[in-house]
């Protein structure tokens, strides 16, 4: 009799804060809980960062776009890679920046092998 009581005590959930309903298998939920765009840590500077990102990627004038496209083609990189380099480093790549251009191309090949989902 004591043995049966021990088995029943072991099968009872220790925490009654979140009781499992009858017929529930105890597995994870089928639908993910809604997660806000700014994450779980609170809103913080989310809107400042979003505005700064939008301002950084605003549409430049057609002349600037044409210049960047020609320059990127001469360097052997894409327009996006060239523009991102300007935004990240604050400088325009030159033909002499062989090492940095090679690094950008290596990163491109890594992205092709391991694309983000």
Question: How do the strands and helices of this protein lay out in sequence?
Answer:
Blueprint: H1 2-11, H2 46-56, H3 62-75, H4 79-89, H5 98-113
Helix pairs in contact: 3-4
Description of the structure:
By secondary structure, the protein is mainly alpha-helical. It has a domain at 62-113. The chain has helices spanning 2-11, 46-56, 62-75, 79-89, 98-113. Helix 3 crosses helix 4. The longest helix has 16 residues, at 98-113. The radius of gyration is 28 Å and the shape is elongated. The mean pLDDT is 80. Residues 6-36 are annotated as: Disordered.
Which features characterize this protein?
mainly alpha; 117 residues; elongated
Summarize the structure.
The protein is mostly helical.
DSSP helix fraction:
40-55%
Proportion of β residues? under 5%
Write the element-wise H/E pattern from the N-terminal end onward.
HHHHH
Low confidence ranges: none
Mean pLDDT: 80
How many DSSP-defined strands? 0
Coarse morphology: elongated
**Classification by helices and strands:** mainly alpha
The rounded distance between the terminal residues' Cα atoms is 56 Å
Radius of gyration using CA atoms only? 28 Å
> What characterizes the major β-sheet?
none
With helices defined by DSSP (H or I, 4 residues minimum), what is the helix count?
A: 5
Oligomer designation: single chain
């Amino acid at each position: 009799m004591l043995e049966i009581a021990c088995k029943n005590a072991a099968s009872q959930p220790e925490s009654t804060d979140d009781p499992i309903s009858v017929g529930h298998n105890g597995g994870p939920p089928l639908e993910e809980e809604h997660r806000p765009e700014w994450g779980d840590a609170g809103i913080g500077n989310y809107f400042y960062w979003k505005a700064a990102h939008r301002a950084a990627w605003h549409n430049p004038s057609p002349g600037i776009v044409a210049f960047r496209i020609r320059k990127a083609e001469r360097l052997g990189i894409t327009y996006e890679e060239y523009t991102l380099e300007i935004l990240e480093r604050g400088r325009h790549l030159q033909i002499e920046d062989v090492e940095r251009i090679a690094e950008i191309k290596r990163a491109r090949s890594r992205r092709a092998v391991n694309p983000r989902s």
